[in-house]
Amino acid sequence: MTIATERESPVLMTYSKTRGLGALLTAFMKQRRMGLNDFIQRLATSNSYACKHPEVESILNLPPPQQEAELMNANPSPPPSPSQQINLGPSSNPTAKPSDFHFLKVIGKGSFGKVLLARHRNDDQFYAVKVLQKKAILKKKEEKHIMSERNVLLKNIKHPFLVGLHYSFQTAEKLYFVLDYINGGELFYHLQRERCFLEPRARFYTAEIASALGYLHSLNIVYRDLKPENILLDSQGHIILTDFGLCKENIEPNGTTSTFCGTPEYLAPEVLHKQPYDRTVDWWCLGAVLYEMLYGLPPFYSRNTAEMYDNILNKPLQLKPNISNAAKHILEGLLQKDRTQRLGHTDDFEEIKNHVFFSPINWDDLTAKKLTPPFNPNVTGPNDLRHFDPEFTDEPVPSSVGCSPDSSLISASIKEAAEAFLGFSYAPSMDSYL
């Protein structure tokens, strides 16, 4: 039995119903932290009804990772031109090392490692340091995504709603991204606590997210993994988009790609159909996030995975009456199953900006951060972790995270792993700070 109908409209629930679903919603939220690859593997190895559904059988009919890698190697994409390549070589940042930092708290976790609050020992500045295990990345053949994340971070350092990379470095076993420290909390965390947002607040966040996506598209980058977990609030309450591991570079305005990736609740119909897709996949995800902010759960959601996928592919969008006509209209445009009819298909971000839903927004003031955010996290300083999930902050900081391994103890397999990430290390030129 599914509870999709009740879950689509938590705004209209009674208090007792909301309390009764609290544990269920929390479980749903935590499950979403699982990556798509892990999700697919778990689903494929289960004997659930979901696996026997014809739509899901088709979606899961993918080559195993090793075979997929072989296919990619047999039919490689043409190499990017020299102007598109970013490979600074293994010695581009030879001085940075883990012991430069005092690692204070775990503030996030992922498939390949952790994000830690760290203070630099020389200047006492606070950073979010993303520490990834090379062996885990190589085991799942995800090194291409990690290098893509690094390249995208290098390109996006100056946009107000994208997290900035200060530098990156590596040891024989780990990769380190030294990022802006953002401590207003994940949008995911605030939605989990508040269930849904009023329309003006949802509009403000959606506008800032759209601005960030439009900027990425202007660089021919498709984001592909927009969800509340990847959207942070800074200390004033502005949006900061993070986690660029699934970004696809070099997608021209009319270009397409076909990699099956994303997060199950947010997969666009064309991705589920395993058809070529373009940058409008990001506008679908923007519609899904806006819907979730207004109603409390993603559109087409069901606990039954097969039913959810079938809903995404076939069920008409249903909108409850407690939002404005402008909000309904933009949701219908963004969540258009036919990507060629989707809002943003013809003129990308310009179409989004000019929609009546955003008529209260002055876009120049928005990108200049002159608009007052609808919610202030009220953090007292870098040590204020009230908006981070205790699931993370209660976890002890691993002692190994700040240590460089003894070179005499490094195994041959680790040395081989190091070669997979040539060019990862990065130190900005002084011009970057001017």
UniProtKB/TrEMBL annotation:
Domain Protein kinase: 101-358
Region (Disordered): 68-94
Binding site for ATP: 139
Coiled-coil parts of chain: none
Catalytic activity: L-seryl-[protein] + ATP = O-phospho-L-seryl-[protein] + ADP + H(+); L-threonyl-[protein] + ATP = O-phospho-L-threonyl-[protein] + ADP + H(+)
Gene3D superfamilies associated with the record: Phosphorylase Kinase, domain 1, Transferase(Phosphotransferase) domain 1
Domain AGC-kinase C-terminal residue range list: 359-434
Entry EC no(s): 2.7.11.1
Record's keyword annotation contains Protease: no
Compositional bias segments (type: Polar residues): 84-94
Protein keywords: ATP-binding, Kinase, Nucleotide-binding, Phosphoprotein, Serine/threonine-protein kinase, Transferase
Phosphoprotein is among the record's keywords: yes
InterPro entries: AGC-kinase_C (IPR000961), Kinase-like_dom_sf (IPR011009), Pkinase_C (IPR017892), Prot_kinase_dom (IPR000719), Protein_kinase_ATP_BS (IPR017441), Ser/Thr_kinase_AS (IPR008271)
Lineage top rank: taxon: Eukaryota
GO molecular function, one term: protein serine/threonine kinase activity
CDD domains cross-referenced by the UniProt entry: STKc_SGK
SUPFAM superfamilies in the record: Protein kinase-like (PK-like)
Signal peptide range: none
PANTHER family, alphabetized: RIBOSOMAL PROTEIN S6 KINASE
Function of the molecule: Protein kinase that may play an important role in cellular stress response. May be involved in the regulation of processes such as cell survival, neuronal excitability and renal sodium excretion.
Similarity section: Belongs to the protein kinase superfamily. AGC Ser/Thr protein kinase family.
Protein name (record): Serine/threonine-protein kinase Sgk1
Organism: Esox lucius
Gene this protein is translated from: SGK1
